[in-house]
Write a structure and sequence with these properties.
InterPro entries: Tet_transcr_reg_TetR-rel_C_sf. It is a single chain. The chain is built from four helices and no strands. The chain has 100 residues and is mainly alpha-helical. The chain has one domain. It is flat and about 50 Å long.
């Protein structure tokens, strides 16, 4: 419900959108950046541009949330398959395959 309201009403509810940005999105971006940087520093993740814009990791989850809100009646999202595909995408995308 919050996501749907933010997407549809953020122009009208600028203060709410600003609050959500500052209290949710900014800390989330920092957390993902630390996560990716730590993985790179430990050699578990490859050196990737994702470290500069780690919020791209959230893109598929946002799409799944929008799908559940708007398209679930037309076609159900298979949550188990989605989770498997999401983690495969993220892990394979970040994984350092040159580890020795």
């Amino acid at each position: 419900m919050i996501l749907e309201t933010l997407i549809s009403e953020s122009v009208r509810l600028e203060e709410v959108a600003r609050f959500y940005f500052q209290k949710v999105l900014v800390p989330t971006r920092r957390m993902f950046k630390r996560f990716v940087k730590k993985g790179i520093d430990k050699g578990e993740f490859r050196d990737t541009p994702i470290v500069n814009e780690p919020i791209v990791i959230v893109g598929p989850a946002l799409m799944a949330a929008v799908w559940k809100l708007k398209f679930e009646n037309a076609e159900k999202l298979n949550t188990i398959r989605w989770i498997e595909a999401y983690f495969d995408l993220v892990i394979q995308g970040l994984q350092n395959t040159d580890q020795t």
